[in-house]
TrEMBL record:
The lineage of its organism: Bacteria, Pseudomonadati, Pseudomonadota, Alphaproteobacteria, Rhodospirillales. This is Uncharacterized protein. It comes from Denitrobaculum tricleocarpae.
Amino acid sequence: MGWRNDKREAERRRGESICSFARSFDCRVIDSWIVRAVYEEFSDSFPVRAEDSFRDDLRTDEEDLEDSIEAIAQRIGRSLDNTEANLLWGRLENATACDLVLFLNAQPRLSAGTADR
């Protein structure tokens, strides 16, 4: 793919925004800071949808995804310790944006004052 496909995808998603993305989640259960951080991290070229695959739709390789997960976790004040205990950990290999939101939501919060909110 490339920038031309990004442009086409942006055109197809005209009118979509973080609000469209956020409606995919129950924000009474899911931390809205996580929803915002995931959206902002990956919406440079076009609006992100919950069902977007990092590999196929967002063309994010495993290393870049890991870097993004670390940056988002720092920003929202979530620990990445003991990720193996998170039932969603094994799914991140073929993850969607929704999977990442759910994964981060299941991770423990860091103590106050450690997030970049």
